[in-house]
Specification:
By secondary structure, this protein is mainly alpha-helical. Helices cover about 65% and strands about 0% of the residues.
Length: about 180
C-alpha cells in the first residue's frame, strides 16, 4: 500500500475506531483481516460505518445471485481501471461459479457476448451503460425486469452503483 495517497489507519492509531465497527469490517472478509480499502476507510469512522453497512448488504443480503453480483463488480473494476477491486473480486467470482474464460472476456472493450448467457449479457449491458454514461436505456430496464423481476433489477442497478462508488474511491486514493 505504499502508493496510497492517504495514510491508512493502523492498529495503534489513536483514537481507535469503535470495536463493533472493526469486528463488522473483519467479519466481511474471508480471512477476518482488514485489507487496504478498510484501512483507508477507517480514516473516517462515519464513512467506514456507512460503507460497511451498505456493502455488507450488497455482498450478503441481495437476492440477485452472487455470481451475477460478482460479474458486475468485475466489469465495473475493468471499466474504471480499479485493479485492487479486480484483485479482491476475481477469486470471489470464481468461487461463486464464474470462469476464467468469462474473466478474460470481461477485460475487452466490447464484451464477447458468445461467452455469456442471456442474463449475463443483460447484466453487462446494464453495467456498461450505467458506468460509462450513467443513463440506462428504458428498454434494457424492461429486459432486466423480464429476466430478473423488479426486486433483482433494483438490486442489479444498486450493485453497479455501489461498486462504481467503490472503484472511484479506490482509484482516486490509489488503493
Amino acid at each position: 500500500m505504499s502508493a496510497v495517497r492517504v495514510t491508512p489507519w493502523q492498529d495503534d492509531t489513536l483514537p481507535p475506531p469503535p470495536p463493533e465497527l472493526l469486528a463488522g469490517m473483519k467479519a466481511r472478509r474471508p480471512d477476518g483481516e482488514l485489507i487496504g480499502i478498510d484501512r483507508v476507510l477507517l480514516r473516517s469512522v462515519p464513512l467506514a460505518t456507512g460503507w460497511n453497512a451498505l456493502l455488507g448488504r450488497v455482498r450478503a443480503e441481495f437476492g440477485l445471485a452472487l455470481e451475477h453480483r460478482e460479474l458486475i463488480m468485475l466489469r465495473v473494476a475493468v471499466l474504471n481501471r480499479a485493479d485492487f477491486e479486480w484483485g479482491v473480486h476475481h477469486p470471489a467470482y470464481l468461487a461463486a461459479g464464474g470462469t476464467e474464460e468469462k474473466c478474460e472476456a470481461l477485460k475487452e472493450n466490447d464484451v464477447d457476448s458468445g461467452v455469456f448467457d442471456e442474463e449475463e449479457r443483460a447484466l453487462l449491458a446494464l453495467t456498461d451503460q450505467s458506468t460509462k454514461r450513467v443513463e440506462v436505456d428504458a428498454l434494457l430496464i424492461e429486459e432486466m425486469k423480464r429476466l430478473f423481476g423488479e426486486v433483482r433489477t433494483v438490486e442489479a442497478v444498486a450493485t453497479v452503483a455501489a461498486y462504481n462508488m467503490v472503484s472511484r474511491f479506490l482509484v482516486a486514493l490509489a488503493v
